[in-house]
Amino acid sequence: MRTLIKTLKIAEEKKVALGHFNIAGFEQLQAVVNVARRLDLPVIIGVSEGEREYLGVRRVRDLADSYNAEYGNPNAKWGFWLFVNADHTHDLQKAENAASAGFDAVLFDGGKLPFEEDIEETKKAVALVKGKNKHALVEGEMGYIGTSSEVWDKLPEGAAIEEKDLTKSEDAKKFVEATGVDMLAPAVGNVHGMFKNASNPRINIKRIGEIKKATGVPLVLHGGSGIEDEDFISAIEAGINIVHISTEIRRAWRESLDAALKGEPDEVAPYHLMPKVIEAMERVIEDRLRLFNKLGNES
């Protein structure tokens, strides 16, 4: 049986990270599947509360299961497989619903809450999720890093990128021990979304290493879009096990769709337009998966 925790342990041994890609439609899912199959890698499909409402909670699970049945090997330790994560879940009932639907992981996001309240609410989420699905992993989030996959003119108000606002290793240790989470998403200088005319803020690699040493749990880097390649490499070496990418894919979707419509203004058949859109997203996804898995650039 393929489980996310077993796969994360192998990734840690390999010193690589699993790519986590948010989807909000079939084309995004197909792009992820195409690349994961081509590179023969396990990946995580992420769906936020809004994306789950749009697509349907059980439908997402069913789609992943259908691809795994067709292309995956349930007895393999590594290789193509789709895991499903209930990304950025703020509502306890929705966390429980995702667990009931058979999701592999649930992120309960209390990052905007005061520290002690974040602990208490996350603890409730762990109990609810584990009560419904013993195999599901629960991820907790510490520190506010923005909430939206947008292209920003300026930093989201309140985002924790100053040294004083980053997740502290001692707080991370307390949080993990008090809540019982399986994974942790700390604030280490990362921020959701991308900036229009500049790279995203630099990641605090030293802090990642300190948090990893203090907690010993898999660490998740949110807001991966726009981060420098060298920061990704260093972050994975320091202890990051999962990297989230969303805005880069959404931007590729939008720009390629605009180009396809402009190039064929009279075309009304989606299956004539969408292959170019899927290919554009594939290029982004493949670039990231190669980087996260130390595969090098395609020759």
UniProtKB/TrEMBL annotation:
Organism: Candidatus Jorgensenbacteria bacterium GW2011_GWA2_45_13
Keyword list, A-Z: Metal-binding, Zinc
GO biological process terms held by the UniProt record: carbohydrate metabolic process
Pfam annotation, one family: F_bP_aldolase
GO molecular function: aldehyde-lyase activity; zinc ion binding
Binding-site list for Zn(2+) 1: 88, 192, 222
Active-site feature positions: 87 (proton donor)
Required cofactor(s): Zn(2+)
Residues reported to bind Zn(2+) 2: 109, 141
SUPFAM superfamilies tied to this protein: Aldolase
Record's protein name: Tagatose-bisphosphate aldolase
Top-rank taxon, per record: Bacteria
Signal peptide feature range: none
Cofactor note text: Binds 2 Zn(2+) ions per subunit. One is catalytic and the other provides a structural contribution.
UniProt-listed InterPro entries: Aldolase_TIM (IPR013785), Class_II_FBP_aldolase (IPR050246), FBA_II (IPR000771)
Keyword Cell wall biogenesis/degradation recorded: no
